[in-house]
Specification:
Blueprint: H1 2-18, E1 26-32, H2 39-56, E2 59-60, E3 63-71, H3 76-88, E4 94-97, H4 101-114, E5 118-120, E6 137-139, H5 144-157, E7 162-166, H6 171-187, E8 190-195, H7 206-215, E9 219-222, H8 226-239, E10 247-250, H9 259-262, E11 270-273, H10 282-295, H11 301-319, H12 327-336, E12 339-341, E13 344-346, E14 357-367, E15 370-382
This protein binds P-hydroxybenzoic acid.
Length: about 400
């Protein structure tokens, strides 16, 4: 009798352990900068991912989705060390992040070899949509060339002939400037100078802007994001060359995340971006309203990438019924996810796992005391052009 009761209890305990209510959590490793020059972007993506789980579901078949945050500091070495910790000690089911192309390049082989599903929510390193693509990797953000390449021809068509370039001295900075150059030179334009200040620790852009002023270009085209973008636009405003030398750039230069901190220098800047808050569709209205209700302000393009990453993961988990043990089945489901999102129809390019999306060319205009992006042009359904992904 005693034995029978014990056995009965053991069976109940065992059944309890297997029932959905006690199923193990699904761990999402947030590999993002929570300190350093890109900390604001890392926090924004995390906020939006958390919002995405609230909106689309934070539990699938009894398994709760939980976040494990790891600070890359925006540095390749730390990013790689934290990636290894998330994979081998925390045993995460899926990775989300990073912000920097340098960190992404450092992590890629470790993630690929460990076969960990990986949803890139910002870093644009082109190789990941080309020769370094992987069946374990998709991207809800962009590739660097997807955003910048259309701008070379666009600026030539608008009459600019001699352009000066500036970007931080790391992978994303060089890739973006090279793509701008390709498009601009092919159209017939000339690059009259280039500057690559260090990503970390450039406080004073004055000496670089003095060189730009001396070269008298038709325009200055730049890539800066996060802390350096705030610093750069403030310096540009203070330097007072905006009247003579129009400033254009990859759109993050004046992201809604930090435009308020940039002051008057942000006015009149031309940019290209994968998202503008004014996109007119029901999913975008819902996203903006939900973001505002939770955080008291509108969501940025960085946030959209995090919000969509959460949705991709939740939708794919539903397809596999919350079972992440067959990683290939989960990744197949991830690649097939499609929905009407804030950027319109969301889908991955089946060739390389990179999102296909519209690119918006805009100009900042001051209206009613606030500087906001006014859309000039929409380049539809831009795909990463690489054909070197063989996975
Ligand atoms: C990158 O390093 O790939 C990167 C960082 C910040 C951005 C865009 C791209 O806003």
């Amino acid at each position: 009798m005693k034995i029978a009761t014990k056995l009965g209890m053991a069976a109940v305990v065992a059944l309890g352990a297997m029932s959905p209510a006690h199923a193990a959590d699904i761990k999402v490793g947030m590999i993002l900068p929570y300190s350093g020059v890109y900390a604001g972007i890392g926090k924004e993506i995390t906020r939006a991912f958390e919002l995405g789980l609230e909106v689309f579901g934070s539990e699938v078949n009894g398994r709760k989705i939980v976040l494990v945050q790891a600070d890359t500091e925006g540095k390749p070495n730390s990013g790689l060390a934290k990636t290894k910790k998330l994979i081998h000690s925390d045993k995460v089911d899926v990775l989300v992040g990073p912000v920097s192309s340098g960190v992404l390049a450092a992590m890629r082989d470790t993630v690929h070899n460990a076969k960990v599903p990986f949803v890139i929510a910002n870093a644009g390193h082109d190789g990941i949509s080309g020769a370094k693509c992987s069946p374990w990797i998709v991207r809800t953000s962009f590739s660097n060339r997807q955003i910048v390449r259309p701008m070379g021809k666009w600026m030539y068509d608008k009459g600019y002939r001699n352009v000066y370039l500036m970007a931080p001295d790391y992978a994303a900075g060089h890739q973006m400037m090279n793509h701008f150059k390709d498009g601009f030179k092919q159209a017939g334009g000339k690059i009259v100078g280039e500057e690559y200040p260090p990503l970390q620790g450039t406080k004073d852009f004055g000496p670089y802007l003095a060189k730009v002023k001396a070269a008298k270009p038709d325009a200055l085209f730049v890539f800066f994001a996060g802390g350096p973008a705030i610093q750069f636009v403030k310096s540009f405003g203070a330097f007072g060359i905006g009247k003579d030398i129009p400033l254009a750039g990859a759109g993050w230069l004046t992201s809604p995340l930090y435009i308020k901190a940039q002051g008057e220098g942000a006015n009149n800047i031309i940019g290209s971006a994968n998202y503008v808050p004014s996109i007119d569709n029901p999913a975008n209205k819902k996203y903006q309203a939900a973001f505002k209700a939770k955080y008291g302000r509108g969501g940025s393009e960085f946030a959209v990438q995090g919000y969509d990453a959460a949705r991709v993961i939740v939708e794919a988990l539903k397809v596999v019924n919350g079972d992440t043990s067959d990683k290939k089945a989960f990744m197949d489901a991830v690649r097939k996810v499609t929905f009407d999102g804030p950027r319109g129809k969301f889908r991955f390019d089946q060739k390389n796992g990179n999102i296909i999306q519209n690119i918006y060319v805009y100009k900042n205009i001051k209206q009613g005391g606030a500087i906001t992006a006014s859309v000039y042009d929409v380049i539809k359904d831009v795909q990463d052009p690489s054909d070197s992904c063989k996975s």
